[in-house]
Amino acid sequence: MNREDLPPTELPDEPLLDEPHTGLMARFRNYFLTGLIVAGPVAITFYLTWWFVNWVDGIVRPFVPMAYRPETYLPFGLPGSGLIVAVVALTLLGFLAANLIGRTLVDLGERLLGRMPVVRAIYRGLKQVFETLFSGKGSSFRKVGLVEFPSPGMWSIVLISQSPSVNIAARLPGEEEHISVFLPCAPNPTTGFFFYVPRSKVLEVEMSTEDAATLIMSAGVVQPGSDPQKRNAAALAGMANAARVANSAALQPAKVKAE
Predict the structure, then answer these.
(1) Residue 15: how many CA atoms within 13 Å on its side-chain side?
(2) Residues 202 and 181: beta-carbon distance below 8 Å
(3) Tens digits of residue pLDDT in 204-222
(4) Which helix (DSSP H) or strand (DSSP E) does residue 159 occupy?
(5) What is the pTM of this model?
(6) CB within 8 A of 191, min separation 6: which ones?
(7) CB–CB of 121/144 below 8 Å?
(8) Which of 92, 184, 195, 202 has the fewest beta carbons closer than 10 A?
(9) Share of the chain above pLDDT 90, in %
(10) Which residue(s) pair with 205 in the sheet?
């Protein structure tokens, strides 16, 4: 039966030829999103790694004599050579600084920097930060908490730091103990707010700082506690299932209501 032979009241609401078209577009969309989920993280990871390697190479290469550069003997440059030189140089510097002669030279350099008014403050601050972050002995940013901010009833993720110094603690109002917290901003966690807050106002959360940073950078899209592999697998399986359903719907013949 042709479409023209149907009574006016029995004409379908949608054109019969739109069903295969809809199935094709649904399959295209799902396949595209699946490829984006697979290739997106890999491409961004390789890009950031390549950028870091080239950045280190650009800093280290001017200090390497031409006789020791790979491009002197090869027809092309060797990415990562500067990074290898930087790792070896830092390791050698750490080995020398651990010896008696190295410690003497380091102390001499620190005393020299300590006599420079502006450089002294910068050097001491950066040294304390690096020692706290990389020595593994400090307790800064090892705990995650919640603070009622920016208004009552609204809670924000904070990274708990150390207690304030004696001079600052003596000037804080009240007798309750205060702690230092850092409130990162989304989606860039390197910026934020630093303030002192009473310990009772902070709710500690069983969460690692890495999960907290992921939660902040994703603006809540990636929630902690879920397995990323299972989540990606479930997303891929859902898209593949949707594509199969769309494919089967497109292959089914269009049904026309008989007289």
Answers:
(1) 5
(2) yes
(3) 888 887 888 888 887 777 7
(4) strand 155-160
(5) 0.52
(6) 184, 185
(7) no
(8) 92
(9) 0
(10) 144
Q: Per residue in 66-92, pLDDT tens?
A: 887 877 787 777 788 888 888 888 888
| Alpha carbons within 13 A on the beta-carbon side of 65 | 2
Residues 6+ apart with CB under 8 A from 212: 144, 157, 159, 184, 224
Burial of 143 by CB count in 10 Å (0-12 exposed, 13-18 middle, 19+ buried)?
buried
Contact status, residue 142 vs residue 206, Cβ threshold 8 Å: no
169 token code pair: 């603690």
Overall residue count recorded for the chain in this entry: 259
* pLDDT for position 232: 54
Task: Please choose, from the candidates 77, 84, 91, the residue with its C-alpha nearest in 3D space to the C-alpha of residue 60.
Answer: 84
Distance CA 182, CA 160 (A): 7
CA dist., res. 241 & res. 130, Å (int): 49
80-135 pLDDT tens trace:
888 888 888 888 888 887 777 777 887 888 888 878 888 878 887 777 767 665 65
Scanning the chain, the segments in alpha helix (DSSP H) are: 18-60, 70-73, 81-98, 100-113, 117-134, 166-171, 209-217, 228-251
Question: Cis omega (within 30 of 0) on the bond before 187?
Answer: yes
For residue 35, the one-letter residue type is G
Q: Which two tokens stand for residue 254?
A: 């269009």
Token reading at 155: 């809670």
| Rounded CA separation 229/31 (Å) | 19
